[in-house]
Amino acid sequence: MSTTISLKEVSASAHEALNAFHREFERFANTSEAESVGGALNLEDGVAEQRALAEVRTKCLGKKSDLAGLKKMIGRVAPEERAQVGQLIQQLERTMTESLDQAEERFKSQLETLRIERESIDVTLPGRRPSRGHLHPITLLRERIEDIFVSLGYAIEDGREIETDFYNFDALNIPLNHPARAPQDTFYTTEGFALRSQTSTVQIHAMQRRGAPVRMIAPGRVFRRDTPDPTHNPMFYQVEGLCVDRGISMAHLKGTVAEFLRRMFGPATVTRFRPSYFPFTEPSAEFDFSCFKCGGSGCRICKNSGWIELGGSGMVHPNVLRVVGIDPEEFSGFAFGLGIDRMAALMYNIDDIRLLYQNDVRFLEQFS
Ligand SMILES: [Zn+2]
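Above are the sequence and the zinc ion SMILES. Below is the predicted complex in structure-token form.
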């Protein structure tokens, strides 16, 4: 049999339990509504404090608490003192529970405020736009060129970058022994296939498919076995144009190229043609235009000549027409081609065309 416990003893234990509770609870007791949770300044600290408060509840009201110990004492108290002891313990439990409940309520509302502050969106602030990129300078220039020719009634044709010898050479009147077919000039892939060395290949496909008359430009990548330097790259962009119809003459070629350059560089632009040689045109000519910077008086861009060399052109060779089944007695045509990279380098004053392909954002973002 266990010994009887007096009211006085229970009272002393209850007092001790209350003191212990106050020591644990002290830091949570003093936070007012105006203060942040348990002195915490941010949500994370506040949540940690809330957890600490829950531990105090377990420690002071749980199964292993002093309070639980006191409740077990009731059975050992003399019957006449039981009611009083019961009230004492109830009072202690109520005091602790109320304090904890109040503090928890406070935590809940303060943490809610912190959460809302964190998640709130100030609709009066200007939004953060996702930064938008822009097209590559070569694409921008290509699109300008395309727009001009589309307005002149030309179609835009696309083609494959790996070509057979037939399309890259034979059909363009480049015979087997021609230097353009030498391995040091062309990237051969496997026997009979090469990376196209000019976009003229697209003209052959287009004429085969559409016949005559045809009016088209073919912008695209071409490949030559060049050692990269400030003015050469093994891969570059070309745009070639082709017009085949009845009665097409050199005058149409000159008029078209001159009109294109006027639209490109301004109405005062002057064009000149110099005799040249290409296997796929006869006669052939290279064309220059008056410097867009100095207007012809001479500057650094035109190397003081007043002229800028731009591309090659000529009347489509009868052999090329024959290859695609167009009768050169009935139809004639002109073709021209120019390098887009070179043109971009000139227009944007880029002294090294390799910069166009290095994908350096600091360089490219200048051309938006
Ligand atoms: Zn100039």
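The beta strands are 155-156, 162-164, 193-195, 214-223, 235-245, 271-278, 281-290, 307-316, 332-339.
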